[in-house]
Design a protein that fits this description.
Layout (H helix, E strand, L loop, with lengths): L2 E4 L4 H12 L5 E4 L7 H11 L26 H10 L8 E4 L2 E4 L18 E2 L5 E2 L2
Amino acid sequence: MVIIYHNPACGTSRNTLAMIRRSGVEPEVILYLETPPSRERLEALIAAMGIAPRNLLRRKGTPYDDLGLDNPDLTDVDLIDAMMAHPILINRPIVVGPKGTRLCRPSEEVVKVLDNPKIGSFTKEDGEVVRP
């Protein structure tokens, strides 16, 4: 089973989803802006990725600056609170696969969590060819 926390407006997320499908898997697609993860699920995803909450924050096109989230005094709890209040702050795509959980930026990172990473040559939407 593969799960992708997906934003269809994001090219990286669309490329990642296409790569998952190229591997022969139809993932569970969670449109996380419409159905945000619970706090417990978000904390579990962060732990599974082995990253700090700050490393999951998205700045571009979000209220990051307005909320002052670059303040180093903010705690992990503060940052998770912000992501819960504004799911657009959660960077994407996050993929949960048989071999782990990753923030797939760049999109070819997804092959590291798939059972079948041999997806062949893949052309991203922007024309970049990757050979994971």
